[in-house]
Amino acid sequence: MLPYARQSVDESDVAAVAAAITDPFLTTGPAVTRFEDDLAGWTGGHPAVAVTSGTAALHTAYAAAGVGPGQEVVVPPLTFVATAATAALLGARVVFADVDEASGCLDPGAAAAAVTSRTTVVASVDYAGAPADMDALREVAAGAGALLLEDAAHSIGTTWRGRPVGSLADLTTFSFFATKNLTTAEGGAVVSTSPELLTRAARFRNHGLVRDPAEQREPDEGPWHQEVHALGLNYRLPDVLCALGSSQLRRLSQFKQRRAELSARYDAALADVPEVTRPARPADADVAWHLYPARVPEDARRALFEHLRAAGVGVQVNYLPAHWHPVFADLGYQRGSCPVAERWYRQEISLPLFVGVTDDDVDRVCDLVRGFFRA
């Protein structure tokens, strides 16, 4: 079976992990700081807080933003459910705003119509690796007195209008799950252009602990003293996984180039299949492609999915609209409220895209797609 996604691990990664596991620090050690510093090399120098997953990154970022009961967070529904769920877990009301027809990313016009005086965060998702119109969303968020968050789980290494992801929003979250553009097995990070937000994020990922005596309420308690001023969780990413992340970052440019080559090959091979809508290529972005999200007629998608799976091609669908999940349906969210995202879902099929895919693999997949529609 050719999977739709898989990590790329080589001997340098194995060596990095082996070195870390024999270090005196298995967690909260120098490899964590090194990985965070290495990440800053891809975010325009903006510092990072490493956490245990992309979901933890979202939860931490929303907490740093002060999201809570009585507030609203605007989210596109064409995303993994965590983008919405982590805001809801903090007590906020999630407001789903529709996506752009071409890109599948949050539509600034829909976001503008969704914000209210209660909006705390406008959360954009870099669908498949390509950002939304971040300048327009910045204006929407600023006009509502809200923070702009970029869920960049798909897009580390992407630049938009010459600026790297990580420098475009007040808060940016990354995921380093095994299927992503680089991996720490499980892991994620929060990046911020605001020192205050970053400090809040760093505290939240470590139980909310305050160790600086200058900031403590009872600093004379003793040299061992630490306090919690606001509740947090243990979202610390261990040194072993951070060492893997630093090693992977040294090859991120290669990963990005190979994914671009494969995506372009799909484009060329499917150009003569009119039933397939290929991904839009934003003129103002240099995209680190995470997915190859083709779209096909709604009445053909499931049959094509099953046809490819039967032929040993591990396709996927990204994603069930977040407001369709029963947990949100039970809260009163209605199907039909975001028609563009819902149409995307009914048409979308992700073809295999990862560094280990060969040119022959792409050609075979495209032959199978072409044969399906010409049968």
TrEMBL record:
<protein>
    <submittedName>
        <fullName>dTDP-4-amino-4,6-dideoxygalactose transaminase</fullName>
    </submittedName>
</protein>
<dbReference type="InterPro" id="IPR015424">
    <property type="entry name" value="PyrdxlP-dep_Trfase"/>
</dbReference>
<dbReference type="Pfam" id="PF01041">
    <property type="entry name" value="DegT_DnrJ_EryC1"/>
</dbReference>
<dbReference type="GO" id="GO:0030170">
    <property type="term" value="F:pyridoxal phosphate binding"/>
</dbReference>
<dbReference type="GO" id="GO:0008483">
    <property type="term" value="F:transaminase activity"/>
</dbReference>
<keyword id="KW-0663">Pyridoxal phosphate</keyword>
<dbReference type="InterPro" id="IPR015422">
    <property type="entry name" value="PyrdxlP-dep_Trfase_small"/>
</dbReference>
<comment type="similarity">
    <text>Belongs to the DegT/DnrJ/EryC1 family.</text>
</comment>
<dbReference type="InterPro" id="IPR015421">
    <property type="entry name" value="PyrdxlP-dep_Trfase_major"/>
</dbReference>
<dbReference type="InterPro" id="IPR000653">
    <property type="entry name" value="DegT/StrS_aminotransferase"/>
</dbReference>
<feature type="modified residue" description="N6-(pyridoxal phosphate)lysine">
    <location>
        <position position="180"/>
    </location>
</feature>
<feature type="active site" description="Proton acceptor">
    <location>
        <position position="180"/>
    </location>
</feature>
<dbReference type="GO" id="GO:0000271">
    <property type="term" value="P:polysaccharide biosynthetic process"/>
</dbReference>
